[in-house]
Amino acid sequence: MTETSEPLDMDTPAAVVPATQPATGIPAVPVAAAPILPRRSRSDWRGAAFAAPYLLHLALFFGYPLLFAIVLVFHRWDVVTPMQWVGAGNLQRLVADDLFARAMLNTGVFLALHIPLQIGVALLFAELLNGKLRGRAFFRTVYFLPVVVSGVVVTILFQQLFAFDGGYVNGVIAALGGEAVPWLVSPAWAMPAIALVATWKNVGLYVLLFLAGLQNVPPELYEAADVEGATRWQRWRHITFPMLNPMMVTVVVLSTIGGFSLFVEPYVLTGGGPLNSTLSGLLYIYNQAFTFNHMGYAATLGLAFALLIFAVVLVQRRVVESDVS
Amino acid sequence: MLGFFQTLYARGHFPRSTLQGNAFAQQRIATEFTGPWTIGWLDENAPDVPVDFAPVPVPDGTPRSETPPVTYGDYKNIALFATTRHPEAAWAFARYLVSPEADRLLIETTRQIPIRRGLLTDPALAPFFAANPAMRRFAEQATATRGVDAVPDVPEMLDAVAQGYERAIYGVETPAEAVASIEARVGVLQAWAQ
Asked: How far is B105 from chain A (nearest CA, A)?
């Protein structure tokens, strides 16, 4: 514990207060007492005790798996038989792995479709819900419902909706005179369909975040804009949008990390196909670990993927935050 | 064989579709690849749909000795722990699980095909096959079932084959290119395994 944090300790004497100052006779100002060593160590012990549950959690669920993953990078391990040292073999395979490159490309395509769609839809609904709307509380609940429903359940539902032969969406399209869309069986359509599902599932959370941001915009700014004769678009462009920027950073970063974690939708809907067009990074790692029992290679992929996410989020934060300023 | 299936898909004899079971039950598609589990499902969900089962088709001119084509068995293996406290009892139980009596219970209860020769000539199973004629098709196919090779990376190699097959039926690669892609990925796996 540092010197500056000492006064927070209620047991430490707050001050040593002499009755008067010897030379002037002016009443003395309290002076902070020097910390007493035994008490300081007790305070350290208490701090450590408070931090211990989190540190234990961090060590067990982050530190240990991370160290174990680093060990696995240099081994081949199928869980059942003992590990075999392979040196840089996993790293060499990673560099030349077409499927991993494909999975990264797919993840990029998904992010490019999903993030703008999610932000656009979330902003639209947040604006609607922020206005005077009959049954506003009901709609706020309804938009959040998909977020709390199990991802697998939602995905199975969309499997029925998007089925090529006999799916409900194609049924509606056919009733309107259109041609059936090969949602999940065409390499061109499969990822957009998955982006739609992921957006539908998660948009409620981002609506909530934007709604909180909208409600934090001081009304005086709008009043001033009204006095100046600003149009609705000008109010949105010059007040709402800049004031939402901190929330925008949060939404972009959360959507990106969420987008990199794309797994349930392709796993249940397409299995990564057709033609690997929906093979996400996480799904490929899962396949290597639990379908092929290549734990060492999966750990190598996982670490590379984590570093990539870290780098992308770092760059993204700088870009979005500089836009804010 | 890849070229044969490329043609079948191009002509629309097989569907490129998800949720094939539903589409088949709704009579929107005419064929699907499936197994004995479909018999019970269709009995429950589409009892009026007329169906039959056949081995995977082969090109004209395929020798009779190669029909039905060989498929991999999805075995449910039995393992005994070396450290078991009752090895004799465990061994007796394992022997019972592969006995004719247990095999009869297996097929009657689960409609899984037991690994046993002469299923269709076994008098104990005759009442079952008489009552479930569709299961005879799968019992006939069982004679052409083979084990999966004991190679460490065989699941990923089979995945490479599946992906090559997919590229061929989608027409993004010719059958020869698909075979070359499969060989290339298997080569990468073999190099990595060493």
From this structure: 31
